[in-house]
Amino acid sequence: MHLKTLFKSLITPSKQITLRISNVQPVINSIKFDQTNHSIHNSISHEVQDRSQIIENFAEKLLAKKYKQIAFLTGAGISVSAGIPDFRSPETGLYAQIKKEYDISDPQKIFSIRYYQDNPLPFMQVIRDFFSREYHPTYAHKLIHQIYKRKQLLINITQNIDGLELKTGINPSKVVQAHGHMRKAHCVNCNHIVNIETYLQNCKQLKKTQCPICNNLVKPKIVFFGEFLPNEFYQSRDILPNSDCVVVMGTSLGVFPFANLINEVGTSVPIYIINNKLPKNISHLKNQIEFIQGDINEISKQIIDYIN
Question: Is 2 among the domain residues?
């Protein structure tokens, strides 16, 4: 089975993360796991309504355009049904596949910038396998596009690097890929931009791509452990306070600084969370949250059908 993931939130521990701060921008640097397992009712104390009723109420408000500035915070879970598995599922996740197929004891290593500079071949193999097939937007991506078409989308900030949001036709100015993207490649030393097709072609042959300026290694414009997040991410934090509704889909909100985005939302703004599990560390927002528990793709399709 080909590896299909890399491209989700290149940095997606489903547990709690600790970041080291360097200068103004956080560096994705180290991971600390919090094994505490909270139930939904411990995280959100208010009674959970019937799922279909919450979906209907939300869809009616969308239809009536009660919300005109909707912000989506999305992660790996919205692309799983496209065939791109998450990182940490025991048998099907990216790390499990890497460990089995490439005989690497610590799969996270290949997403470290230091490891990449020492040995880029394992990462290039993942890239080669990922691009051996084509991926298509899911109903979750299509839901965001529907909101965009209805002129109700403020911003979509995503941890994913697969670019499926853009494949739906959403204007790139409305999408912020917090952990980078695969549309360009650049030198790890001088940051010279290199055509991504050149890089991908070399990956097929497991041939290193070297910078034509300084002869150092080239990598895609995705955020590795040990690298800064893009400036667009920090600019997007200033946009969130303008939202009148926030939808969280496919993310555990366990990766910082992305997880802190939820705290930029106004205290009276409703937050709809569409996930199988409720994210941790959000109990302080319990009065704003409507939790729609279940399959993200299925729920997204129901909402699309309703507003159409």
Answer: no
Q: Which residues are annotated as a binding site for Zn(2+)?
A: 187, 190, 211, 214
Q: Which residues carry a binding-site annotation?
A: 187, 190, 211, 214
Copy the structure tokens of residue 84.
């791109």
Question: Does 160 score more than 90 pLDDT?
Answer: yes
Comparing 52 with 108, which gets the higher pLDDT?
Answer: 52
What is the pLDDT, as a whole number, of residue 4?
A: 38
Q: What span, in angstroms and rounded, lies between the C-alpha atoms of 200 and 202? A: 5
Q: Which residues of 68-89 are buried (b: 16+ CB within 10 A; e: fewer)?
A: ebbbbbbbbbbbbbbebbbbbe
Of 179, 186, 192, 284, the catalytic one is 179
124: domain CATH number?
Answer: 3.40.50.1220
In a domain, 11, yes or no: no
Task: List the domain range (segments joined by +) for residue 175.
Answer: 20-179+223-307
Active site residue 179: yes
